[in-house]
Fold:
Amino acid sequence: MVALQPLSKIWMDGALVDWPDARVHVLTHALHYGYAVFEGIRCHTTSRGPAIFRLDEHLDRFLNSAKIYRMKLAYGREELRRACIDLVRANGGVAAYLRPIAFSGYGEMGLDPTRAPVQVAVAMWPWGAYLGEEGQARGVRSLVSSWTRVDSRMLPPQAKCAANYANSALAKMEAVAAGYDEAILLNSAGMVAEGPGENIFRVKNNVVSTPPASSGILRGITRDTVIQFLADEGLLFRRNDFTREELFTSDEVLYTGTAAGITPIREVDGRPIGTGDYPVTRRLQRRYTDAIEGRLPEREAWLTFVR
Ligand SMILES: Cc1ncc(COP(=O)(O)O)c(C=O)c1O
Structure:
């Protein structure tokens, strides 16, 4: 078990507080009913100081998640932007993962969350590659889960709501218990959807594809970044559904996500993927590292410099 490494401050309900003081009551509504929306953002170190990657897009998605759930936040986009920047500064500008979260707080129980007060916080902590440095370098082994991804008739997948992650946790635990690194979830039509916390792409005969938003996925910001890179690199790209067996016969399969970065999948359900040499994934990984670390001048608008 990797212990969370505390930093100095957490932004909570409008102010920076000391890390140990960012507490909630056991009768916090969201703890019981999963009524929380959140984001995952990264701040990287660059030669011009710390920079938050695609902050505005993450905050837009955060506010859209809240809107889908009729959650009224006391802070708008600009205040949340300021909160993230102030927090990174207060924590010494270290490379870290930022977690804005809005949730139904303490004061009312029962299933109508609109009666509970909404609390908002932004925490950050140093977090290495989610699927490990080795996973990012060599590729990970994935299991197609027996759990079906939530779909928009059950829980809207495009809202990053805590409740969705109970479904992710079931899939993740199943994969790990079976000796794999990560899961792949199919949607209720039996087509490939995404990972528990990552989007998925496949490469076949030099054509790159990823399931469309309508397949019941989170519209990943790393997914969008990769789609833009594919255009930059002149690679053929399609948004289309694919099946589990099309994963097995792919030349390359990869996860994308803020936590996982760009991670090759070297095995699905015990079948090795491609030749073990992942040229498209490697190209995308190099470009992504250049973008997040400020070495891609044409993509500098994606960086919010914090110094
Ligand atoms: C279910 C799910 N899919 C995909 C992603 C990837 O999204 P992003 O690239 O915006 O981090 C995430 C991570 O937030 C996720 O939780």
